[in-house]
Every structure is written in structure tokens, then in C-alpha cells.
Design a protein that fits this description.
The complex is a heterodimer of chains A (393) and B (102). By secondary structure, chain A is an alpha/beta fold. Chain A contains 14 helices and twelve strands. In chain A, the strands form three sheets. Chain A has a six-stranded parallel beta sheet with strand order 7-8-9-10-11-12. In chain A, helix 4 runs parallel beside helix 5. In chain A, 52% of the residues are buried. With 102 residues, chain B is an all-alpha fold. Chain B has a domain of 64 residues. In chain B, 68% of the residues lie in helices and 0% in strands. Chain B has four helices and no strands. In chain B, helix 3 packs antiparallel against helix 4. The longest helix of chain B has 32 residues. Chain B is elongated and about 65 Å long. Classes of the chains: A alpha/beta (393), B mainly alpha (102). The interface between A and B is large, with 77 and 47 residues.
């Protein structure tokens, strides 16, 4: 069996739900009123009130990122709207470990929920001082409380105060010193009203990430834009096309100055899939060969070479991508679980992985499920690591 | 400064009023009901597989050389079913300790 018992499954894309007191417990008193806090909202159909986040005077309905946008209102009430309607593993790092054990998953990189996957919620609100305190409070929670519960099993990811690049640099340095292994960054900052990656604006941030050895984790959707060819099309269209955001992000990066100015920067494209990568690299190389001379793009580095050096593509299940894994690059593929989202295969992630990797050689499986992630995130096995099968070891 | 007027905050909010920005539209949380159903299905599958293995072992059709492996498989399936059932119970109990805002 190619997925050997001693191989650790490392998920580079899971999610946590912030418990109600993450900010209440950590914000300086002057910001506590403005900071995120849970408020009760009566439900139309009665019963216990919904719990929603309120931040700087605005209410955010998705405590668990259980989406409501685009759904028929009659289906709206089926998602968890209170903490006591969620799996405890969503918000409790010790309970999460038990769920991971059951799933055969050794380690997880968890993206935030209320702050959004790249912390972009803190771009909102007029009080930037409060927003900065909220970013720092989230990162302290993530490092000290969440990852601190099991440092060998959680890969700490920090969010940044994206409205101020110098503060971003300071937060990268501060959190790296506390053990952060990766930084959340939007797949494309331009739609968020921020300078694009083609400007020099982000250079200090990228340099700081290089210096700290912290790759950027870009989860799809973090640009705030989703693919919707027709305004009245069904959600199935957007869901099918979600990976296109990662295609856009990758192509934009490959033709930007980012990798040329930052030769040690690494990027993980979370949840984007891998099956499309060979075609996109072929296409980018084709365009580069024919069209680079009259454009302001780098002339001496082929896009596919930049990809191999700088970019990691991530998947849950992707048969076509695995069949073409050598065209993607065995060293450029990461596995993910996506717990506790319904896309995950919990509690059978390991079983599904055994089936997915059935025809792939051991050494390649090891790199995809464990080795690449440990190298990229500087997250070596330790004495506290389990035996690979979680509770089944 | 941040709280809504009393009347507004106590009024029921319709779905359209509650729509807000989210990173992604399909990132639904695994619900308790769905998770419980997944666990129940897996418990049933594991128990079925364990029962089939026990039936096979008792049928007398198993070669001596295969017996130890099949016994180990049956034990593993039984243990997995117990583990899944315990997880369902743990999740049910854990919900009672859900965090409350301070």
C-alpha cells in the first residue's frame, strides 16, 4: 500500500472557528468595545438566538463561515448558527486533535474564519488602531492558545494588517519570533482596494517573509471575488470554477516582478487543486516565448521554472492532477483535508487518501502528504509527533 | 458606539438582511447532523465488515496461513467501529461545554 502507516498526513488547509472570547480576552480595554464580540440575534423561526460577530459596529452573520450568500432562504437555517450547534473540534484545539486522530491526520495548518482566510475583515472599520490590535490578538490566540495546545501538530499561520505594509513587516517579524510558520496573504490584493502585486508596494512585506522563512499561504477566495459568469447562474457554476481564482493568482504572480525581486519567497495556493497546473504552465510558457519582448515582464526566467522554484499547489482529491503529477512537480504538491468544512472526507481522510494514492510510488506519496509540507513550513517531526495513524497507531 | 439601537437589535433579522461578506460561498461547515450521520454510517460499515470477517473465519473455508491476517482485520474493524461510536458520543457531550461570550 503506497500510503504507508508511518507516513504522516499533513493538511495544509484546514479551518478553525474563533471562540467568542478570542478578542475579548486579549484586546486592550480601550478597544474591547470595538473589537469582535458575539451578540445574540433572534431567529425568525424562533428557538435559541443566532450568535453573530459584531465588529466596529457592523454585524457579520457567519460565525463559522457557513455561507448564506446565494442560498435559498429556506435552506439558510440548516447551518450552525451557534457554538453549541458546531462540532467542538471547530473551536477547541484539544477536541480538534481527537477529530484529527480519528481522521488519521497528523498535523494541520488552520486558516481563520471570522477574520476571513487572509484576515481581510480587519480592512473594514474606521478605527485602524483597533484593527491592528485585533490582528495582533488573533495571532497571539493562534500561536499561544491554538497551536500552543500541540506545537507538533499545528502549523501556525498569522494574518497581517494589510492596510499598512510597514506594520505588516513588524507583525511578520513579531510572529516569526513566536514560532509562526506561514503568513496568510490574499490571492490578489487589487480587488480589495489594495495595491497590486505588480507595484513595489508589497516588497518590504515579501522581503520580510523571505527573511523569516515564512511562505505565503494564499487561500482561494481571499481576493473577495468569486467566479460568476452570469449574474443569474446557479451556484454550481461558481463552485465548479473556484479553482480559477488560483489560476488567476498564479498567472499574475508568474508575470509579475515578485519572484525576481524575492528569490527566496515561496507561495502555497490553498485549495486551488492541481489538475490545471500543467496546462497553465504550458500556456504561460507559450505566451512568454512569443510575447515577452514588447512587455514589461522579465525576459530571462520561464514561468514554469519560476513555478517549480516558488509555488506549491494543493488538493483534496484530484485524480487528473495526480495522474499528471510529474508535470506539476512532485516537489510542488501538498495535500489538504479542509476540515471542518463539508468538502472534507472526515472521518475517512486517511482511508480516502489510501485509495487516491493507491497507484503512486511510496517516495512520491511521502513527499505529497508529508515531506513537502515539512520542508516548506520548516515543520520537522519531533518527539511529540504521533506515529502517523493518529489514534490508530 | 458600536451597538445598534435597542429596537433594531432585538428585532428578528431576515436572511437577506444578514447577508454579509464571506470568503467563499461553498465553505459550509460540517454540521452536527452531517457529522453524526457520517459517523453512524462508518460505524455500520465497520461492523458489517467485522461481521463478514467473523462469518468467514467461522465458515471453515479459511486456509490456516490466512487465518491470523483475517483475525487481525476483524479486530481492527471492531476497534474502528468502537472508536467511531466513542467519537459520536464525545461530540454529543462536548457540545454541552460550548463556549459562551463573556
Amino acid at each position: 500500500m503506497p500510503l504507508q502507516d508511518d507516513m504522516h498526513l499533513i493538511s495544509v488547509d484546514d479551518h478553525l472557528i474563533e471562540h467568542p472570547n478570542v478578542w475579548v480576552d486579549r484586546l486592550p480595554e480601550k478597544y474591547r468595545e470595538l473589537g469582535p464580540r458575539i451578540v445574540d440575534v433572534p431567529r425568525e423561526k424562533g428557538g435559541p438566538p443566532s450568535q453573530v460577530w459584531e465588529y466596529q459596529g457592523k454585524r457579520y452573520p457567519q460565525i463559522g463561515l457557513n455561507a448564506v450568500a446565494g442560498k435559498d432562504p429556506k435552506d439558510w437555517g440548516i447551518d450552525p448558527a451557534r457554538f453549541d450547534e458546531m462540532l467542538p473540534g471547530c473551536y477547541d484545539p484539544v477536541e480538534r486533535l481527537k477529530d484529527m486522530d480519528l481522521d488519521g491526520v497528523e498535523a494541520a495548518l488552520c486558516f481563520p474564519s471570522f477574520p476571513r482566510f487572509a484576515g481581510t475583515v480587519f480592512l473594514e472599520g474606521a478605527d485602524r488602531g483597533a484593527a491592528l490590535a485585533c490582528v495582533k490578538a488573533y495571532n497571539d490566540f493562534l500561536i499561544d492558545e491554538w497551536a500552543g495546545a500541540a506545537p507538533a501538530r499545528y502549523i501556525p499561520l498569522a494574518v497581517l494588517p494589510l492596510w499598512d505594509v510597514e506594520e505588516c513587516v513588524r507583525e511578520i517579524e513579531r510572529t516569526a519570533a513566536k514560532g509562526v510558520r506561514t503568513i496568510a496573504f490574499p490571492e490578489n490584493p487589487a480587488p480589495l482596494g489594495l495595491p497590486s502585486i505588480h507595484t513595489e508596494h508589497w516588497d518590504p512585506l515579501f522581503s520580510a517573509a523571505e527573511a523569516a522563512g515564512t511562505p505565503l499561504s494564499m487561500h482561494f477566495g481571499t481576493s473577495g471575488v468569486s467566479p460568476k459568469p452570469s449574474p443569474d447562474g446557479p451556484m454550481a457554476v461558481s463552485i465548479t470554477l473556484f479553482g480559477c481564482n488560483s489560476m488567476y493568482a498564479l498567472t499574475d504572480l508568474l508575470f509579475s516582478p515578485v519572484f525576481h525581486r524575492h528569490p527566496n519567497l515561496r507561495i502555497s495556493l490553498a485549495e486551488g487543486g492541481i489538475g490545471w497546473v500543467p496546462y497553465m504552465l504550458e500556456r504561460a510558457d507559450y505566451v512568454w516565448e512569443r510575447h515577452r519582448w514588447y512587455q514589461n515582464i522579465v525576459h530571462d526566467a520561464r514561468p514554469s521554472d519560476l513555478f517549480q522554484k516558488h509555488v506549491y499547489a494543493c488538493f483534496i482529491e484530484d485524480v487528473h492532477g495526480l495522474e499528471n503529477r510529474h508535470a506539476v512537480g512532485i516537489d510542488n504538491i501538498l495535500w489538504e483535508c479542509d476540515y471542518p468544512h463539508s468538502d472534507s472526507n472526515w472521518p475517512n481522510s486517511r482511508k480516502v487518501a489510501e485509495e487516491v494514492f493507491a497507484k503512486i510510488p511510496d517516495d512520491e506519496v511521502y513527499k505529497i502528504v508529508e515531506g513537502n509540507a515539512r520542508a516548506l513550513f520548516h515543520f520537522p517531526r519531533t518527539e511529540e509527533s504521533t506515529g502517523g495513524l493518529g489514534s490508530r497507531a | 458606539m458600536t451597538s445598534l439601537p435597542e429596537e433594531e437589535s432585538r428585532a428578528p433579522h431576515g436572511p437577506s438582511e444578514m447577508l454579509g461578506d464571506s470568503d467563499w460561498d461553498d465553505e459550509d461547515l460540517l454540521t452536527i447532523a452531517e457529522a453524526s450521520e457520517r459517523l453512524a454510517q462508518e460505524v455500520a460499515r465497520s461492523r458489517t465488515r467485522a461481521r463478514m470477517l467473523h462469518d468467514l473465519l467461522e465458515s471453515g473455508d479459511v486456509l490456516d496461513g490466512d487465518r491470523a491476517g483475517l483475525v487481525a482485520q476483524a479486530e481492527a474493524e471492531t476497534a474502528r467501529a468502537d472508536e467511531l461510536a466513542a467519537a459520536a458520543e464525545r461530540i454529543r457531550a462536548g457540545r454541552a461545554n460550548a463556549p459562551v461570550p463573556r
